[in-house]
Amino acid sequence: MAATVDMTKTDPQPSRFERLRARYRWLDHLVRAGVRYTERHGDHYAAAITFFSVLSLVPLLMIAFAAAGYVLFLRPELLTELQDGIAENLPPALGDLINPIIVQAIDSRTAVGVLGLLIALYTGVGWMSNLREALSEQWAQVPEPPALPKRLLFDLLALLGLGLALVGSFAITGLASGFTRAVLALVGLTEAGWAPTLLAIVGVVLGLTANWLIFLWVIARLPRERATFRSAARAALLGAVGFEILKQVMTIYLAAIRDSPSGAVFGSFLGLLVFVFFASRFVLFVTAFAATARGNEQEALALAPVPGPAVIRPEVTIRSGPTPTTAAGLLGAGAATALLTRRLLRRP
């Protein structure tokens, strides 16, 4: 009796993580966003953004020194107080060294300020260009690169727009918080026990709203090809909440590293560097989250051009004789054989 062998193959069972992805759409969305972030080189772009962010600190410090020079020049009494404080708290030799440097910095305030503005303009446009390229990469956009003057102009306008959005959001937060405090004072509830809690809640809500507006602008308007606000709204909400958590974590981190001797010297700079890098990664991940929404992915598939059918044309080449290389080789071999035969026949 012949034994029968079952050759049918069973499909592999999905793993537990795959079953969880199929069950929870939000988990599947996070995984797809992570895959998009990794495939689109999110860490490399975040490192480039961090480099230009740190590079932009130098001209900003120059502008700050120039502004301080103008303040000391317009208010000589502050300069006198500063010099007196240096003379009282530092050794005489060190004070005689620092005071001329301060006077020289005040005298060169205009040159330092103009040079700082020019460098800040260059580094700011470079920072914005890298940010827009990174965001466009997460959206899987491959737009044609515009001409250099046009690209620089658009990046400069985007930089100014982002700056105005930041200033406007923080101004709204401050004014609304002050308005709430004024309303409580008007109705005589400033001394109430729940007033500080209410102010804290209003501050958190306003901070989240400001962050949401900024993330909405960054995700939807900064890429080379603009996306709709509707597709970026949910991702911007995730970015607003996550950015507040990131700020709290970085506050705890800075408080922890300041206790060490090296942290007391380099803690602020290292903390700023780490914060900018993780903030850049988070912004790009949130953009990938917006780009991998089901509606956006289906739209991208619908807009993708369908390649035409493959056409196979067999080509047969028939030669009636040897190729030039083969003919040259045969002539050389024949000549060598003739010379060898002639020498052999001449021998006695």
Please outline the helices and strands.
Elements: H1 16-23, H2 25-39, H3 42-55, H4 57-74, H5 76-89, H6 92-107, H7 109-138, H8 148-186, H9 195-221, H10 229-257, H11 261-291, H12 294-303, H13 324-346
Helix pairs in contact: 1-2, 2-11, 3-7, 3-11, 4-5, 4-6, 4-7, 7-8, 8-9, 9-10, 10-11
Q: What distance lies between the first and last C-alpha atoms, to the nearest angstrom? A: 84 Å
Instruction: Please state the overall shape, judged from the principal axes of the Cα atoms.
Output: extended
* Low-confidence blocks of residues: 300-304
| Rg result | 35 Å
Domain count, please report it: 2
What is the H-and-E element order? HHHHHHHHHHHHH
> Number of helix segments?
13
Q: Tell how many strands the DSSP assignment holds.
A: 0
By secondary-structure content and strand pairing, the structural class works out as mainly alpha
